[in-house]
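Justification of resources, computational component.

The compute hours requested in this renewal are based largely on the per-chain cost of generating structure records like the one below. Each record pairs the submitted sequence with a full structure-token output. That output is archived, and it is also reused by downstream analysis tasks.
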Amino acid sequence: MNEMRIATLRRERGWTQERLAETSGIAVRTVQRLESGKDASLETLSAIARALDVPVRDLFASEERADLDPGVRGLDERTAADQAARDRAVAGFWSLYAAIGIGFGIVTVVLLVLHVWSPLVFLAVGAYWVLGRLVGRVVVDVVLAPRLDRRYPLSRHDDGSSRAAG
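The structure output for this chain reads:
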């Protein structure tokens, strides 16, 4: 492997080895080993790159992409593909939530126009949007995220500030 720049990138952010380990989800001992020049798996390099918010290639001192192992060269592309697939899955969940809510709203208006329901049924529509949003966050965080972690291991779980969630 080429010389690593992990310690330099970490220090530029003012981070300790412990903070990098915590942010990347790896052991402190692994950070220490990497900073001392030991090799790492592609998954570990990807986790560190995500934590430092840099492409994997920036972890190496060599600026020449051709000098990097083919697995490392392709890791940034695979990471981007995994993240895009994960983002599409989460966006699909929220699109389904919105479609159900819109359908529920349309049915409610139609039933109100036909005088089948009372105007208080609009409370049910409001409750769907408010409570459904909260329940949806729980479903995404507790059910969907672990499955997406297994399916797309190079992707990152959004902690609640999802653009797709609106």
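The helical segments are 6-12, 17-24, 28-35, 42-52, 70-113, 121-151. The longest helix spans residues 70-113.
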